[in-house]
Cys-tRNA(Pro)/Cys-tRNA(Cys) deacylase
Amino acid sequence: MAKKEKIKKTNDERILDQHHVTYEEVSFNWLEKGADALSEAESVGVSAKSILKTIVLKGSDDENDYLVVCLPLEFEIDLKLIANQLNKKQVHLADNKKLINITGYVHGANTPIGINIRKGFPIYFDERIKEYDEISVSAGKIGRSVRLKQKDLVELVAGKYLQVQ
């Protein structure tokens, strides 16, 4: 009988363990598979709208004015609306080439878990995810996600809800 290969936990999964947050490890590679990944999720009973992407934004207040918005993969983000709700002159996407220096993650692996715990950036969630008990976010590695209770994640990262579109 072949040995089952044990998958090494990501740092973000360890953070969840330390905070006693229950989660399920899932493999989900939006960057490589695109819409096919959403179809795969739907085929196993996971709503595509419960799978979130993590967008890092730069505010206009100062050079370290970063914030994170998590929203379903298939939705777009309205930067003017977000800036208005947060009383900022403007917000724009953080430079993808500098993400590793800003957040500690490469593009496609950003996660609200580690960004909030390690960097202290404020985390905002699309208010439309309130209807989902469980959501999926990156586990800090491309193609790897965690599925957990939405309220547990929001509480862990002291998240707030906003209208993003």
Remarks:
- Residues 35-43 form the longest helix (9 residues).
